[in-house]
Each structure stands twice: as C-alpha cells, then as structure tokens.
Design brief:
3 helices, six-stranded antiparallel beta sheet, alpha+beta, elongated
Length: 177
C-alpha cells in the first residue's frame, strides 16, 4: 500500500472516530436532559420577549416561513382567526379545553382575553410559541404560532392551528348561545 493511501485511511478513521464521539456526547446530553426533566429541551431556544398583545395586536411574524398569524398582512404568514358563536367567556373556555387535549403543551400566560401556550415537538424538543387574543367586537380569536428556532417548520405551525381550529369549532358549535 502506498504512503498516500495509508495516510488517507488514517484521516478517514480519525474523522469517523470524531463523528461517532460527537454523536455519543450528544446522545448522552439528550438522555441526561430527558431523565432530569422528562422532556427533551436541548433545542428549546429562549422564550421571546416580544409576545403578548400590544395596541390590540399580537407580535408580527418574522421574515422566516415558520410563523403564521391571523393579523399578518402577507400571504405567506396569513391564517384566518377563529370565529366563535358562543359568549366570549365560553369561547375562551372552549379554547382552553382544546389546548389541554394536546400533549406536550405548557400554558405560560392567560388573562380574560389572552392565552399563551408552548408546544414542544417530541424527541428533538423544539418549542413553538402559540398565542390567542380574543376580539369581542369582531367575535374572533386572533392566533399567532411561531417556531423559536430554525428557518422552516415544514408547515407544522399552520397544520397545528388548523387542527386546533377544527377541534375548537366542534366544541364551540355545541356550546353556542
């Protein structure tokens, strides 16, 4: 075997060893985090400080495609608000019931007209921030759902909101005034 081939094999072995070592370290960290908290949160990111209702509006979506909002003006981020047929109080109660039916949710803040919940994606631990703001005059609940990390969410936020909407509509119709 030539000296170049031997040297090339040695480099390949070191690269493979390094990659395997890094994977093992990551697996150990993930396992430790899961065993301590019960949920993998290595990729949770930091809770945004711009959430909540300001001047009647939820925070605008960032330029990344991993956010949807019923108050957005651009087509890429736009999603329809939830329409309710019951009283405002009953609509918020129905919404809380729907949110509680989902696994890996954590209520963070709530008031009479606002709900903020974190959704954690299984295994990897990505966190999505989901907010709801009730507009009694328009009889709608505005929604914003955004991933904390990454560029694309592969449509997860939009799909989740549509699933929430379907469940909300089913409950809210049966409780309408």
């Amino acid at each position: 075997m030539s000296a170049i081939a031997t040297q090339s094999n040695s480099v390949i072995k070191r690269v493979l060893f390094t990659c395997i070592s890094l994977l093992l370290v990551f697996a150990c960290l993930l396992g430790t985090k899961i065993s301590l908290t019960g949920e993998p949160q290595l990729l949770a990111g930091t809770r945004p400080d711009n959430l909540g209702v300001r001047a009647g509006e939820l925070a605008p979506c960032p330029n990344t495609p991993n956010c949807v909002s019923s108050q957005s003006q651009d087509h890429a981020h736009k999603i329809e608000p939830f329409i309710y047929n019951s009283s405002a109080q009953a609509a918020m109660t129905d919404l809380k019931t729907v949110l509680q039916s989902f696994r890996r949710t954590k209520p963070i803040a709530q008031s009479e007209n606002y709900l903020y919940t974190e959704f954690t994606i299984p295994v990897v631990g990505f966190v999505d921030d989901v907010e709801f703001s009730l507009d009694e005059n328009a009889r709608v609940i505005h929604v914003r759902s955004a991933s904390r990390m990454g560029e694309s969410d592969l449509g997860v936020n939009r799909s989740r909101i549509e699933t929430l909407r379907a469940r909300f509509n089913q409950i809210n119709r049966s409780n309408s005034v």
